[in-house]
Amino acid sequence: MIGRGQTGNAKLVKHINREGILHQLKENPRVSRADLAKLTELSRPCVSALVDEMIVEGLISEVGFGESKGGRKPILLEYNFQAYGVIGAVFEGSTLQLAIANLKGELLVQRTTCLRHPMNGETAIQSIEQGLAALLDESGFDKARLLGMGLGLPGITQRSEGTVSYAPSTGWMGLPVRKEIEAALGLPVVIENDVNLMTLGEFHKGIGVGHSNLVYMYAGTGIGAGIMIDGQLYRGAKEASGEIGYMVIGPVGNQTKGEYGVFERNYSVRAIREKAKAALPLMDESESIVKQIVDQAKSGGKAAQTLLDDICRHWTYGIANLTSVMDPALLILSGEMLHIGDEGVHKIQQWLTDWVPSVPRIEMASLGDQAGLIGAIHCALEAFPSTSKLQR
């Protein structure tokens, strides 16, 4: 008689074997059943049975014949990256980015939506619903083929509980965000901090490729960082790693729990814009404030140059704190920091040389506003493997 535990173990083993076969097909396209048996160290009958099952499901395709080694030509197999799709979504400032990607992580269709302010949970969820409906309509992709969504949110995200804390820009403090979005979409969702997703994007597809230890620093509506240690995203004991906006850099003032941190209250885009009102005679609200400061400094504006030096110096305080603790091989600058140019990077390197014992290589982020989306897609592919669709 087979016990309940044994039945569960058999299902688990089958799931692991299926994932092992799919992994090998991703890494080794166009191989035979016999090749898969050697690569996975599974028996040929086991491989054949699981392969035939996944061919019926559409996960694997037969794509021709290989060379004969004395007998019949072997049938070659290929992972069908188009079988299913995942959704990537990222809230950043006043925009929502959405994309649908195939199982290879290739973006098939995407859109950016400007959000109404002030934004609340209800309007945010509605914007996701409407954006996904528009993507499905534009692409003709069948919603039934979607595995799930990776969603980037500002603030400290609790992945397991599906909640967000310390997110003053959205007001989603402690609310069951994931549960509500899953109910609205009818799809599983995994949530992650927005800067962590940007970090994953650069790590997998951008300037961070080949670096197992790096720090990604972002300055925008808030200030945050993503940390990769030995090729893994470090989240911390309470998933609050990288919340460097709470570093005590600049005047502390009256700090209230749940508000923006001291660093971002003083040197985020919102704060810099307030500082710039006195330094810049004319400001264009539609253009990057840091770019405007840099342009006026280059044109000889002394007040703009003084402000720019102050901004770069205080951003470097944050970088020095990160560097002295993490000792990364690579530091990636992103967000508004992209506008400081080579001269700004050179200043940061000089200050760091004076302040810390080991200075990392410093590079600008290479993926632009695609970093978060690519990270969200990667997050979804990791959380919802293609075989999960058939287990629901």
TrEMBL record:
Pfam family, one: ROK
Keyword Acetylation attributed: no
Record keywords: Carbohydrate metabolism, Xylose metabolism
GO BP, sorted A to Z: D-xylose metabolic process
SUPFAM superfamilies hit by this protein: Actin-like ATPase domain, Winged helix' DNA-binding domain
Family: Belongs to the ROK (NagC/XylR) family.
Function, as annotated: Transcriptional repressor of xylose-utilizing enzymes.
Protein name: Transcriptional regulator
Biological source species: Paenibacillus elgii
